[in-house]
Design goal:
It contains 12 helices and 17 strands. The protein is of the alpha+beta class. This is Non-haem dioxygenase N-terminal domain-containing protein.
């Protein structure tokens, strides 16, 4: 989610998937409105069906006596969307509102202030980043800006050699202490809450996977994440598009390109839409998060505005030997005249192993097979560096 990989490209034939989706009858489908548009009772017309994520209540998640394996399998298993939402998390709604309302303020800071918040030595994986990523087309992504920080550790390490080798994990946070003093506390509060909830979910993931394969205690997902210093939060601000840009948007990846998160578990808030400084409902019922399923279908995934969603990353799929599965996903921008001038904010927490965590790769993996050495062993830091090199040096 390094966090910068949250929008890397994934190659597949979108046109053929689109054609197959058109061939499926829409009659009889129950199509739900997006979380930011739930007041509308209209059904969504379009080629892609809408699916609600599997939901687990916070009280269920806290209870270690409950066997949540059926829900874990339904959401994260080989036939799932790779997403589970958690409802009724105490304090989450207020923390979400507070932080997301700050994203536009970061993006509107004076250029010289934003420049001071950039960290090119980390490949823009700390502080402010805008227009630094290359996506599906090979062009730089200027549709959104991001602010990155570790919500748990301001200084993950003081070891100079590690900072030089893994700058995208080991460098210190950069906060706009004078220009936007509220950001640090809001960012850390939401990030830590999402980490705590994610660790509870990881416990139940371990319980599910342990039924199918033997796992050493040190190799449990929850244990790997608890000892990690690599967690990274990403506050995203999607700039408002003008009429000429909206007319060009033709696909479901118009706001964020197709990608698969490379870490362990990604926490995600629902999006907040703003127009002229005022929060509004999403102006397009077809906008939002799209997922490509295991059978190459594209569906629109929805969860409640006050729910926390978690997506499986590539590393968890690898370490669970495919019992937990990562899925490619994208974000579609709203279309139509009412979408002109609409901004979007959201927050993601990339939960991932420590940079020195050794990963034993199976003989065959679905993601980046070419990066795995013959002995099948890499640390998470080495794996991440290989991915960074692959995507930042990709030719246009």
């Amino acid at each position: 989610m390094a966090a910068i990989f949250a929008c890397k490209a994934t190659s597949f034939d979108l046109n053929s998937v689109y054609a197959r989706s058109l061939s499926r009858p829409l009659a009889g489908r129950r199509l739900y409105c997006h979380v930011s548009c739930q007041k509308s009772s209209r059904e969504i017309e379009g080629p892609f069906r809408t699916v609600r994520t599997v939901s687990i209540s916070y009280s269920e998640l806290k209870d270690k006596r409950l066997d949540l394996s059926p829900k874990v399998e339904e959401g994260f298993g080989p036939n799932g969307l790779g997403i589970i939402s958690v409802s009724e998390v105490p304090g989450f709604s207020d923390l979400r509102q507070t932080l997301l309302n700050l994203s536009s303020r970061i993006a509107s800071l004076p250029t010289n202030v934003r420049n001071q918040l950039e960290d090119p030595d980390s490949r823009y994986n700390f502080g402010w980043s805008h227009g630094k990523e290359k996506l599906e087309s090979g062009k730089f992504d200027t549709y959104k800006g991001s602010f990155y920080a570790n919500p748990v550790l301001d200084v993950p390490t003081t070891d100079i050699s590690l900072i030089q080798r893994y700058p995208h994990y080991c460098r210190a946070n950069i906060w706009p202490t004078n220009a936007l003093p509220d950001l640090e506390s809001a960012f850390k509060a939401l990030g830590k809450l999402m980490l705590d909830v994610g660790l509870l979910l990881a416990y139940h993931c371990d319980h599910y996977v342990s039924k199918a394969m033997r796992i050493n205690e040190d190799d449990l997902l929850q244990q790997i994440l608890m000892r990690s210093r690599c967690h990274k939060g990403r506050l995203l601000y999607y700039f408002a598009k003008q009429q000429s840009e909206i007319m060009k948007d033709t696909g479901v990846s118009s706001w964020c390109g197709w990608h698969t998160d490379h870490g362990s578990l990604t926490g995600l808030t629902s999006g907040m839409y703003i127009k002229n400084g005022v929060e509004v409902s999403c102006p397009d019922l077809a906008a939002g998060l799209y997922v490509r399923t295991r059978n190459n279908q594209i569906v629109r995934a929805v969860f409640a505005e006050d729910d926390l969603a978690y997506q499986i990353g590539e590393i968890t799929e690898i370490l669970s030997q495919g019992h937990l599965c990562a899925t490619p996903h994208s974000v579609q921008a709203p279309k139509g005249e009412e979408s002109i001038g609409v901004e979007r904010s959201t927050f993601a927490l990339f939960m991932q192993p420590d940079w020195d965590e050794f990963l034993k790769f199976p003989a065959e993996i679905h993601h980046h097979q070419e990066l795995v050495p013959p002995n099948g062993t890499l640390t998470f830091g080495e794996y991440s560096e290989a991915l960074l090199h692959k995507y930042y040096n990709r030719k246009q």
